[in-house]
Every structure is written in structure tokens, then in C-alpha cells.
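Something for you to look into today, if you have time. Could you write out one complete protein record for me, on any chain you like? The space below this message is yours for that.
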Amino acid sequence: MQIRLQTFTVNKRFALTISRGTTAKTTNLFVRLEHDGIEGWGEASPFSIGETPQTTEALARSLQRVMPLLAPYHPLERDKVDRLLKDSQVPSAARSAIDMAMHDWLGHASGVPLWHLWGLNRENIVPTSVTIGISTPAAAQERVKNWLGMSSEIQSLKVKLGSPAGIAADQAMLQEVMETAPHIKKVSIDANGGWNLKDAVMMSYWLAEQGIDYIEQPLAKGNEDDLQKLYAVSPLPIFVDESCFTSADIPGLVDRCHGINIKLNKCGGLTEATKMIHAAKTFGLGVMFGCYSDSTLMNTALAQLAPLADHLDLDSHLNLLDDPFEGALFQNGRVVPNNNPGLGVALRAKDAAT
């Protein structure tokens, strides 16, 4: 199989601020895999957790290094390819792009969408949340209005907290959000590791009083011992994101969280995402899907597995000014994969012509 790489830059309609910083645009990688005249597509977007950021440049270098090694393989040899990529120390986001492209190739070769190939029921897909970044209360109010102005079908909000200004600022912002959208009954919180244990305990009780559904990553990665202490007293379910990369991490988190957040860049692709889903459910944990600065291509890929998720946070493509792809549909607040083969993703007309 032959691999081609292309970079593309996506700009957000509204910059997103979390506890670790602000993002207004990213440059992502578009991976095109060709074999027997059939193409499969994948995407990698940069992200940073811990000491080794997965930058666009690092992802591109790693793929260019292994592209000649991938030539002898067939797109159906996912296990062999995954072992080669891991042995070659290819970062997870780059592995995910290759894995995604191999799945897309399989769907095109079979002539059916992946959700259908896996026997999944799209009616089981829950609404996706849309994200409100850290800001002033007034700016948060405007962001909620912008989302609701884009679609009256929005049913769920995810609010980023963990403000450097402290939990009083978090509380003021959330109250403004709740007052601006009183008809939205499902609201979750993502602190992105921005709290210490004392503040997290205090906020868990206060957030429960506000009717919040669950808290995501209240403590920073590396503080899993404190996470266990929070888990023991929190009145709200706790989901982990940065603390859980792959299925291998799940057994060690069973006694300190209620669920996990799966992201393709982070875990290494649809193959590993499937393993994580089954592992989490085996241990009685909830499953949510999330995203970074991903386009329609990547969010459509993860949406293929969306019938298996309890919560969805696949809204990054909805906040892009210049998404080059079209794929999953936004229906009744849900991100729903279409009936086209593979991932069901195509280039928008203006991008296909360039």
C-alpha cells in the first residue's frame, strides 16, 4: 500500500480556552492510503499531554520515516502494521491516521459504511455536547448564544472549568451558562486537570447542586492517587481523559473513576478504540468519545462507533470556518455517520477542485 501525506490548516470560529491554554487554529495531517486502486483516508491532529507534545511536524516526520516500510503490507493486515508502527515508535496520533485509513479502505473495498460492517444501530447514538471554553461570564453567555444560534437542536453542553483565576471564577462562569440555556438539561464539566484535590471535592458537591451530569478529568494526569480519594466522596460520576490513553490503562483506573474518554489521536486508532470500549464495559465503566482540533474526517471516523458510547463530545468540526471535509450529519443534536462506504467522508467541492 502507498501512503501520501498532506497538511491542512483549520481555523476555529471561536478560539477555545481550557486550563492548559488557548487554541484558535491547528495544522492537521491528511493521510491517503492507496491499494488496488482503492483509497482510504485518515487524519492526525496535534495535541499535548505530558512531556512530549505530538506536534504536526513530529507526526509528519514519523510517518515519512515509516512510509517505505508500509509499502509491502495489505490494508487488511492491521495487526502487523500496528506492531510495525509501535516498534518504530510512531506517535499515537500518526498510528491513528494509518489505522483510520485502513478501516476506510476496508469499507470502500466492501462497499458498505463501517457502522454497518460492524452491525451497529445508528438509532442508539446519543446527542453530542458542544463546548464552552474558559472565559468571563459575559463571554460564556455569548458563546452559548452562538451555539444555540447555529442550531436549535443542541441538547447538551460541555463547560470547560479549571480557570487559573480559581473556583470562584469557575462558579460565576457556569452560573451564567446555566442561566443562558435553562432548557438544556444535560450539562457536563471538563476541568482538564485544572483543580487540586481540595477544590475538586468542593466543586463536586457544588456542581451536584447545580444538576451537572458528570465531571471529566478534575485532577491532572499523574495525580491518580488523589483521584481515588475524590472518587470515594464525589456525589458526581468522574470520567478520565488525560489519565487514560489505551485499554492497558483501564484496569488501574477502575477504583478511581466511573468512565473513560476515548480520543482517536490519543489511543492510536479505531482498532484500539474498540478494545477500550469492550474493556471499559467489562469493568462496568461508562464510555465517552472526545476530540481535539479535529475536522469532519476524524469525528466521522469515531462516529462510526458512536452507537456504543454513553456520552459524546464530537463537536470540534462544528466550530471550524474552513473544514475541507464533509461526512457525518448533524441531526437532532447528534453526529450521525451517513450511508456511504467506509467512513463516508468526501472533500468539499472547493477543496476537491484544488
